[in-house]
Amino acid sequence: MKKNSNCDLKSCFMCQLTLKEWHPAIESHKRNFIAKKGEVIIKEGDPVSGVYFVTSGNVKVHKQWGDKELILRFANDGAIFGHRGISSSISTYPISATALETTKLCFVDIEFFKTTIKVNQEFAYGLLMFYADELHASEKKMRNLALMSVKGRLAVAILGLRDQFGLDAEGFLNLALSRQDLAAFTGATYETVFRTMNELLAEKLILVKGKQIGILDEAGLTDLSSK
């Protein structure tokens, strides 16, 4: 990763919730980097060294599930990742993280991050709520994998990505996603996702332009996502 000094101490999850008096400490401990598209930032099984925040760009957080990759979530502007490595009994990262585009990152080492939690009550509470929301989302995703059709899971994924990244002026997701990554995010094979995407296209629920996905019928996708 290439070093980068840009950071406004305002945008990331940590800076937004910590005391302003604590910001000079963050400034002296943080390190900023730029990761290229496709660059692995964290590798599953590596020793835990710290926590990352996305200044700008997009990162996929993923792990191996047997011989397949499963994308757990996407981290974009201001988001945290690497926090799953915080544990009283595990000293390695249980996930990998890869840049999907040129991404600016802020890194803080694990000991300083733990100190920040102890000193900043609002940040500690915000982090607790984030863990709770992430657990809820993980449980829902596992339920969907077990009980929902691939078409329903695709509908859930597209609507969720719309909520996270928004739409551009043409109605496309502000995220270019390969079919392989979409398959890894929905827990399906590439072939099944390709076939199911064609079904959604034929039913005029979505439109596709290269790696971009647009929404034509939100009500139809919502109906699929509830089955």
From TrEMBL:
Q: Which domain of life is it from?
A: Bacteria
In Swiss-Prot or TrEMBL terms, this protein is called: Crp/Fnr family transcriptional regulator
Which controlled-vocabulary keywords does the entry list? DNA-binding, Transcription, Transcription regulation
Species the sequence originates in: Pedobacter psychrodurus
Q: List, alphabetically, the InterPro entries matched.
A: cNMP-bd_dom, cNMP-bd_dom_sf, Env_Response_Regulators, HTH_CRP, RmlC-like_jellyroll, WH-like_DNA-bd_sf, WH_DNA-bd_sf
Q: List the SUPFAM superfamilies hit by this protein, alphabetically.
A: cAMP-binding domain-like, Winged helix' DNA-binding domain
Quick one: a GO cellular component term? cytosol
Q: Where is each Cyclic nucleotide-binding domain found?
A: 31-117
- The HTH crp-type domain covers which part of the protein? 148-219
GO MF annotations, alphabetized? DNA binding; DNA-binding transcription factor activity
PANTHER family reported in the protein's UniProt record: CRP FAMILY TRANSCRIPTIONAL REGULATORY PROTEIN, REGULATORY PROTEIN YEIL
Which Gene3D superfamilies does its entry note? Jelly Rolls (2.60.120.10), Winged helix-like DNA-binding domain superfamily/Winged helix DNA-binding domain (1.10.10.10)
